[in-house]
Amino acid sequence: MCNILNGENCKSVCPAVISMTQLRKQCAYWQRALRLQDWEVKLTVSRRSQFTMPRCQGVIDWVLPTRQAYITLLDPRDFPGTPFMHDIEVTLVHELLHLYVAPFHADEDTLADHAQEQMIDALAQALVRLRKQADGKRASQ
Ligand SMILES: [Zn+2]
Fold first, then answer.
1. What is the pLDDT along the chain (141 residues), one digit of tens a residue?
2. What spacing in Å lies between the alpha carbon of 103 and ligand 1's midpoint?
3. How far is the CA of 120 from the centre of ligand 1 (A)?
4. How far apart are the first and last CA of the chain?
5. How many whole angstroms from 93 Cα to the centroid of ligand 1?
6. Which of helix, strand or coil describes residue 22?
C-alpha cells in the first residue's frame, strides 16, 4: 500500500510499498545501513503542488551543526507518468545520501551539483536493488 494519505492500494502505480509507518521503518533501516543514526530525520510526504521544483521527487533540508534533517517525499499518487519506474524507497535513500555531501553542497544546476546528483542517484538505486535482491534470496531459502 503506497497511497499514504488515504490508505488506498496503488500497487499498480508504485509496487514498492508503503504506509507512513513502513516508510519510517525504511528510514530507520537505511539510517542504520548508511551509518547515519546520529542524524535526527523527520519525514513527510507531500503532493506535487507542495514542491517548488517540478521534476523533483524528494527534498532534504539539513542543519549540519545539530545533525537534523527534514525529508519531504513526493506522494506516489503524483509520480510522473514516464516509462521509468519510480520507487519512493530509492528517493528516501537518495535524500539520506545527501547528508554525506552536505558539507560540500554545490550550487544548484552547476557541474558539481549534477555530478553529486548522478553519484547519489546511482548509489541509491544500486543499494535499494541489492537490498531487494538480498530480501528475495532470504525469502526463497
Ligand atoms: Zn538529490
1. 233 433 333 443 444 447 899 999 999 999 999 999 999 999 999 999 988 877 789 999 999 999 999 999 999 888 877 777 789 999 999 999 999 999 987 898 999 999 999 999 999 999 999 999 999 888 887
2. 14
3. 7
4. 25
5. 10
6. helix
Cell of 140: 526463497
Burial 126-140 (b: 16+ CB within 10 A, else e): ebbeebeeeeeeeee
* 140 Cα to the center of ligand 1, angstroms: 34
pTM comes to 0.84
Angle at 98 between CA 95 and CA 53, to 5 degrees: 60
| Grid coordinates of 43 | 519525514
